[in-house]
Amino acid sequence: MNSVDTYIRTDTGELDDMVPLVASFLEKNILDLVIDGRTVRGYRTPDARSLWIRDYSDMLRGIRYFEPDVRSVVDHFAETQAASGRIFDYVTTFPERPPGERENWTRYVRVPVEADVEFRLVKAAWLAWQATGDIEWIRSLIPALEKALGYTTRHPWRWDSGHGLVKRPYTIDTWDFAYTAGKHDWLQFQINEDTYWGIMHGDNSGYCEAFRILARFHQRLGNPEAAREWSVRADRLRDALNRVCWNGRFYTHFVKLSEVDIPGVDEESQLSLSNPMAINRGAAGHERAVAILDEYRARGRRKGGFAEWFSIDPPFPGGVFGDDRLVPGAYVNGGIMPLVGGELALAALEHGREKYGVEILKRYHDIICASGESYLWYFPDGRPSGIETSTSPEATPTDGWGSTAMLHALMTGLAGVQDRDRLFRRVRLCPRWPAAGVRRADVRTGYAASGAFFEYSIEYGESSIRLEMSGRDADVEVHLLLPEGGSADSVRAGGLALDFDVSRMEESIYLDFTTRGISRTEVRIGLS
Description:
Blueprint: E1 7-10, H1 18-27, E2 30-35, E3 38-43, E4 51-52, H2 53-63, H3 72-79, E5 90-92, E6 107-109, H4 117-132, H5 135-154, E7 159-160, E8 165-166, E9 168-169, E10 197-199, H6 201-220, H7 224-244, E11 255-256, E12 271-272, H8 274-280, H9 286-303, E13 312-313, H10 338-350, H11 354-371, H12 400-414, E14 417-419, E15 426-429, E16 440-446, E17 453-460, E18 464-481, E19 488-493, E20 496-497, E21 501-505, E22 508-527
Parallel strand pairs: 15-18
Antiparallel strand pairs: 1-16, 2-3, 4-5, 5-6, 7-8, 9-10, 10-11, 12-13, 14-15, 16-17, 17-18, 18-22, 19-20, 19-22, 21-22
Helix pairs in contact: 1-12, 2-4, 2-12, 4-5, 4-6, 5-6, 6-7, 6-8, 8-9, 8-10, 10-11, 10-12, 11-12
């Protein structure tokens, strides 16, 4: 791994070392599995020595800056797809419960109660394609991706035709064990006659994004009719999600299809971890995004403590999901997750709560700088997770899931380099450095798989802003946060005046203009 091609350097230096710190966590998570004589190179989940497509598809947002092989995991999960279209959750060649278990056989697992696995494969394919630019690879994957989505929208365990939404057993948000009202003696991963059914919003926001990815792929492949079909399906799913699951302040954790009540918890007030993800997946529009962000901030102020990056709040009573270690504040039952914090930070930066987003990034930065560690979850008082407090076999101090969510928020939200196509050929550039008190920044993002890159430097003066950008024939849509109280009166590139607009996002003012086909260009923005 090499982080030289991706960096941030600012005049304050406050967040500059987050890139190499996260890269160091990821380096310790590399997991090479030799299966059928071929190496599948991926990054392990933080709580088990295995490759889960769910973790990997999120972590790939950071992995691809440093790792040349972003395809072998995607290929392997596609190649091992069932005839029905179902995708495995994870694969490992290591004993999972040592020392009692010693067998190093190749093990594939699908947790039956999970309904989100198939959209994760689609998202991973999208992120890998952006880094490689290989459209023929995507052409070869399309049948598997469409088959996976077809499985979800047709199988009676996955699809509720009455609402037109994905369903699942009663789990804690996206996690993999179901409530049984005491009818099972431990964590329940199976579906049976005692299963309580319902709709979990996070499944549906994930499939909404996956449908849009298929539309983009088909557009790229020259299939406009298929692209329109997937776009329409995405719109229908989004509308059904917002009609059924939105409660006015956030997405209801679990909309029940079976009659069940869990004593000791106010289920109507439960705020669960997929809420900020719905924002970043494009399922929640701006008004809903602001409502969700304000809900998290209000609960954080009210509760105090370590952070408001709740897995779920309020939590369930201890042990009701079958394991006494799942007490309130532990793991996905109210634990504090950097994964959630990173999603919140990105959503805040994108929706007019820029200073809140920066605050989250700085809090996380302080944690990992002080300890040199990052955990999947923490107790609300700040204690990190451990094997003895978790249902998982491990609790590594180099969590790649949450750390890459934070890195993603830093690089695409604050530094603001967003790849809108592949290989940084179409970039949305939205630097938000004034929210962090930064007056000069140098940023470079690169994909290790292809060598594609985009870089810029920006300097804020009293009467002007200098922005210099470099790429490879990149079309750049600039959406630049202006300093507080500032307004733009001119934009010039290479001595020529550019058309521009000024827009508002909540109380923030942005400057918008476009440059096309740049290799290197300098822009001067006059302030008034």
